[in-house]
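Hi everyone,

Forwarding the result from last night's run.
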Amino acid sequence: MTKRKVSGGSRSMARFQHTANLLTVVQTCRRQGRSVIDFFTQALIADSNNYLSRPSLLPQY
């Protein structure tokens, strides 16, 4: 919540949801001890190459 207040918040509900989603990914990666930069890099590469396999935030059992 502090990050959103400092950054000026959102002017639309859609923008607010996008910001919340990004912050959720960042927080999940950190809690899992994963690199946030590596996760986003893998996601962007997969998206740009239309790979069927995209990185997941779900723990692997």
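Residues 2-48 form one domain.

Cheers,
N.
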